[in-house]
UniProtKB/TrEMBL annotation, chain A:
The protein, known as: Integral membrane protein
Record's keyword terms, sorted: Membrane, Transmembrane, Transmembrane helix
Membrane spanning residue stretches: 6-27, 39-58, 70-89, 96-114
Length: 122, 162
């Protein structure tokens, strides 16, 4: 993982999640804005996957369990997709909230991934 | 996806007054949808974690990790049971969510009273503190939702087939 890129991800994912949850609770159906925010989160995760695959080749090794890291990463990649499909199928305010919940869950998972990659050795 | 218009608890306060024009019934159903989504996320989290634990260090703590796997399966079944409507699934939902409630209370208490028993983290250790206490809160919300969506209550409203 590249540290600044991890923080960039969190800086996008948390506001995106909060935005979707708030707009959903205010009764908005999924819009280009909320779907776009979720799509952006998904794209960041795809870039993160590429970064994670390439980083060890250039000497940036994970300090923690790679198995655990990739379990988080793959799960995280699935979440916005699932929430996005849900929002396409069911266009209700709760689908917007669910988009937000997915983004926030992904943010927590990225934070855990940073920990696994950088601060091990307990 | 239209839902029956009654079968809703009248004491239940409207979540957001700004969503005017929507009947209370669909709002309750909507919160149910959110509940299902959160259950899905927790099922995914528990499954992922127990997958890693069992693959990498099962020998260290067979009890704790078996429990993790069991909890993961129960979360998955609960999620499926919440999505499906029939009377049988309703009972399955009660059973799994009740099991979770019991699990988080018993394991949570034991992990505080006798930490040696659960040196390795499970979903339920310390009442689910590793998961923002979601495992503790979710069964309560789940049981509340099940209680307010009893099949008998829905039958009055001319519900769909079980």
């Amino acid at each position: 993982m590249i540290e600044w890129f991890s923080w960039l991800q969190l800086a996008v994912m948390v506001p995106a999640g909060v935005l979707c949850v708030v707009l959903g609770l205010f009764g908005r159906k999924p819009t280009d804005l909320t779907m776009g925010a979720t799509l952006l989160v998904e794209l960041l995760l795809i870039v993160q996957l590429v970064v994670a695959l390439v980083a060890p080749l250039v000497g940036n090794e994970a300090t923690g369990s790679l198995l655990e890291f990739y379990t988080y990463l793959i799960s995280a990649i699935l979440l916005p997709v699932a929430a996005g499909f849900w929002a396409l199928i069911e266009r209700s305010r709760w689908s917007t909230v669910i988009l937000g919940v997915a983004c926030l869950s992904v943010a927590v998972m990225v934070y855990r991934m940073v920990q696994i990659w950088t601060v091990q050795g307990v | 996806m239209t839902e029956q218009q009654t079968g809703v608890n009248p004491q239940q306060p409207p979540r957001s007054p700004s969503a005017a024009g929507r009947p209370a019934a669909s709002r309750a159903t909507g919160i149910g949808r959110l509940l299902i989504a959160v259950y899905g996320v927790l099922a995914l989290a528990a499954t992922g974690r127990s997958f890693v634990q069992i693959l990498s260090k099962f020998d260290e703590a067979p009890l704790a990790y078996s429990l993790s796997a069991l909890a993961a399966v129960v979360y998955i079944v609960a999620t499926v049971a919440l999505i499906n409507r029939g009377a049988l699934w309703y009972r399955v939902a009660w059973a799994t969510i009740g099991f979770e409630m019991l699990g988080v209370l018993v394991v949570g208490t034991l992990s505080l009273v006798d930490p040696a028993l659960f040196q390795h983290a499970t979903v339920w250790s310390v009442f689910g503190s590793g998961y923002l206490f979601i495992p503790l809160v979710l069964p309560v919300l789940g049981m509340w939702w099940l209680y307010t969506h009893r099949p008998a209550v829905q039958a009055v409203a001319g519900r769909k087939t079980p």
